[in-house]
Amino acid sequence: MAPKFAQLFVSALVLLTQLLSLADARNIGVCYGLNGNNLPSPTDVINLYKRSQIDNIRIYEPYPEVLQALRGSGLSVAIGPRNEDIASFAGSQDAANAWVNKNIVPYKNDVSFKWITIGNEVIPGPLGANVPAAMNNIRYALSSVGLTGINVTTVLAATALGASFPPSAGAFASDITGTIASIAGILAQENAPLMVNVYPYFAYSSDPIHISAEYALFNSTSAVVTDGSFQYFNLFDAMCDAFNAALEKINFAGVKLAVAETGWPSVGNPPFTSVANAQTYNKNLMNHVLQNGTPRRPSYLMDAFFFEMFNENLKENAVEQNFGFFFPNMAPVYPFW
Ligand SMILES: *[C@@H]1O[C@H](CO)[C@@H](O)[C@H](O)[C@H]1NC(C)=O
Ligand SMILES: *[C@@H]1O[C@H](CO)[C@@H](O)[C@H](O)[C@H]1NC(C)=O
């Protein structure tokens, strides 16, 4: 009896440790862009993620130095090809295999790839129609090297919605509905999330007459929008639920969302941009997504990536340059992590 009991005890301990480490990982990540000429080395950046206890990282291209620095880091990685490469994957299984063999296979034993994003905001757009076939070919390339279970998905911009207000009116733009339905079919089969970029900042700063700062910053203590039986206290939930309603309309209610980008700039367009607003939005967003789903998906906690790690001086304007949590010298823009 005794050895059996000991064995049971050990398996219980192992299980408990696994549960604890699961509870430990937050479904929160930060995007790491490289549009700056003064950014720290990838190794320093990955160490900064680790010191800051940021578990998930999103990168926009398979930069070899970044992938090298990610080895053994334990971070969960979202990675995508360059948008320009997607058409070749759609047209050629060999091209998809080559991308996977070059950028994923050499790292697969010590880098934890969780999401492969085929296209960042290419739908709507001229490249968009390539996405479903490119996703299938990349998925096939992964499974032929024994990699199953990685989420192969795409990232949509808010402009993919032809209607978004009230959230129940959410619908994909008619010219892309077929493409999105093909993508949703793949996602449903693989149980992978559809990724979306959600920026209450841009909605609010372009229409401050109709959208209040409190609603955009999660500061409202009463419902701002009532939509049938759903009550919205913040714009983020309303924007996400417009996507959920759009998925319901094409009969893919079961496809879940993950947020590939969200954030708030600290500089560039006062009074909408400020360090205080950026800090408020990001703090409130973090508390919100760690504890709450949206009104249409109340029990589903979405994975979310903040945009972004650093202020990047080569982006096109002051707002775009100032979404970072950190200055290029790695000093925090405001206390957060
Ligand atoms: C797939 O994506 C979901 C939602 O973002 C995530 O929770 C899950 O861990 C991912 N699965 C794998 C195998 O990486
Ligand atoms: C939002 O709430 C924070 C406190 O959580 C406060 O510092 C900030 O001034 C508020 N901003 C607005 C616009 O309501």
The total of helices stands at 12
Global morphology: globular
Can you say what the CATH homologous superfamily is? Answer: Glycosidases
Coarse structural class = alpha/beta
Largest sheet composition:
8 strands, parallel, barrel
Protein model, in words:
The chain is an alpha/beta fold. The protein has one domain (26-322): Alpha-Beta Barrel (TIM Barrel), CATH 3.20.20. The protein is 39% helix and 15% strand. The chain contains 12 helices and 12 strands. It has helices at residues 2-24, 42-51, 64-70, 86-91, 93-103, 131-144, 177-190, 200-206, 213-216, 235-249, 275-291, 318-321; strands at residues 28-32, 56-59, 76-79, 112-120, 151-156, 161-163, 171-172, 194-197, 225-227, 230-232, 257-262, 304-306. The protein has an 8-stranded parallel barrel, surrounded by 4 helices. A hairpin with a 2-residue loop joins strand 9 and strand 10 (230-232). The protein is globular, with a radius of gyration of 21 Å. The termini are far apart. Mean pLDDT is 94; it is low at 1-10 and 13-23. Bound molecules: 2-acetamido-2-deoxy-beta-D-glucopyranose (2 copies). Residues 213-214, 217, 219, 280 line the site of one 2-acetamido-2-deoxy-beta-D-glucopyranose (NAG).
Task: Tag the structure with descriptive keywords.
single chain; 337 residues; alpha/beta; TIM Barrel; 8-stranded parallel β-barrel; two-stranded antiparallel sheet; 12 strands; disordered N terminus; binds 2-acetamido-2-deoxy-beta-D-glucopyranose; glucan endo-1,3-beta-D-glucosidase; GH
